[in-house]
Amino acid sequence: MTKIKRFPSLFRPQGGVDQSVLEQNKGLVDQISRRGLFRGTMSLGALTMLTGCEWGSDGSVEQGLLAVSRWNDIVQGAIFRPDHLAPTFSAAEVLKPPRFNAHYEIEDVKPVDGRTWKLEVSGLVNDKHSWSLAEMMSLPQQEMIIRHICVEGWDYVGQWSGVNLRQFLERVGADLRARYIAFRCADGYTEALDMPTALHPQTILATKYAGEPLPDPFGFPLRLRTSTKLGFKNPKWLTAMEITNTRPGTFFGDQGFNWFSGI
Ligand SMILES: Nc1nc2c(c(=O)[nH]1)N[C@H]1C(S)=C(S)[C@@H](COP(=O)(O)O)O[C@H]1N2
Ligand SMILES: [Mo]
């Protein structure tokens, strides 16, 4: 049986007074503010004023954060800078092996067989053929050393290489005016990107970590790596991609996490 992990969720307070929720996530708020989203104007007090909620009384943390989340989606979409590059790091800073996370424990990872694996491509796209691993590996590869930030409050520098998503979308004749790319994974996980993020120069379909094929727990044979999104918007063990104008449901988004979750 797969154990479902309990996340220290921003959105599901355990009931009663929970002053610690924002405190626990202060690192993330600070990160986002350092990376320019709030430009230093957004304090925890300001969040209270923005949402008109007393943080901590029954259910209000949840309501307040949902309000912030909806506001975030609008503002984040509006201020997203398509060509603004996320910070990159040196090879010496790369964590080896990377730090694992999923909504279950590492022992429950079910490795994907690269010999039979395919990536399905569907929706608003000309070329709907499924891609084998060999075909993916034959495309030009791009490398980036970027920071991974998880909502649980930890981060690491990782070295990822693979196929630039914009170049892949152009190659398969995707409609780049479509609004979303939806992803499905071998473990049933779902995620999605808005098109501007999909077309960002540091968004790739990664096949390697630190120059080696992705180890099984980290998404072999193919995962998404965005430089401008939180960890959970980087689906592992990809099996399908759909180009669509209908906003896709996502594993964490459907539980109330901020859909955009990035800068
Ligand atoms: N398929 C799938 N992808 C997933 C997850 C998952 O549970 N299943 N967890 C996400 C979360 S919450 C994080 S932080 C990152 C962790 O990636 P890593 O193990 O390479 O650090 O993967 C994301 N992608
Ligand atoms: Mo995460």
Query: What's the level 1 CATH class of the largest domain?
Result: Alpha Beta
What is the CATH-assigned architecture of the largest domain? Alpha-Beta Complex
Shape: globular
Helical content class: 10-25%
Tell me the number of structural domains. Answer: 2
The count of helical stretches stands at 7
Small molecules bound in the structure, each named once: the ligand Nc1nc2c(c(=O)[nH]1)N[C@H]1C(S)=C(S)[C@@H](COP(=O)(O)O)O[C@H]1N2, molybdenum atom
Query: What kind of sheet is the major sheet?
Result: 5 strands, antiparallel
SSE pattern: HHHHEHEEHEEHEEEE
**Beta-sheet strand percentage?**
15-25%
Q: Label the structural class.
A: alpha+beta
CATH superfamily of the largest domain: Oxidoreductase, molybdopterin-binding domain
In whole angstroms, how far apart are the ends?
A: 36 Å
Number of strands: 9
Model regions low in confidence, pLDDT < 50 over at least 5 residues: 7-19, 35-44, 46-57
CATH topology grouping of the largest domain: Sulfite Oxidase, Chain A, domain 2
**Radius of gyration of CA atoms, rounded to a whole number:** 19 Å
Overall mean pLDDT score?
A: 82
